[in-house]
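Incident review: delayed structure delivery

Summary: a single-chain prediction request sat in the queue longer than the usual turnaround. Root cause was a stuck worker, restarted by the on-call engineer. No data loss occurred. The affected request and its eventual output are reproduced below so the record is complete for anyone auditing the incident later.

Affected input:
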Amino acid sequence: MVLLVGASASGKTEIAKYLFSRYGMVKAITHTTRPMRKGERKDVDYHFVTVEEFLRLKEANALVESTEYNGNYYGCSKAECGDDKCIILDPSGIHSFLSLGDSHIVTFFLRTKESTRLERMRKRGDEEESIRKRLRGDRVTFDPKNLPPVDYVLDCDEDDVATIGDEIYRLYQGKLSD
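Output delivered after worker restart:
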């Protein structure tokens, strides 16, 4: 399983989409309480649930990990875990997955400069107040001293999605064959 972690607009979603289309990896569909964005589909992009439904799943120990980010809950169910699956997490989620003790879990931190992320968020139409809030929060959450150990750190400012995606898949396959 590939775990992708990175600050807002670091390229996680686009890289994951590339891994799905190029290498046939499968998205581990997480649960969230945030509203659907334009173009998203229920049970394809996320399992969109109410806060009450999410808390019931958490109480039933059905989630590997859960977190609150930007005022919404996110979590991956145990049923979504497996080889050749990919999930996007925040740093706290990595600990929960690693506690499963599965040697087939490979973690990647997508390091991206704040100026690059700011430009990407504006380009995709995020609201300025939301951008400022996310950047402030990301400075703490994704500060290197607050990150758990990961298998690989990739710089995502210069290379395109395909180059980064190919490198992730190569490293993932190499780790599985170790």
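Verification: The radius of gyration is 16 Å.
Action items: add queue-age alerting; document worker restart procedure.
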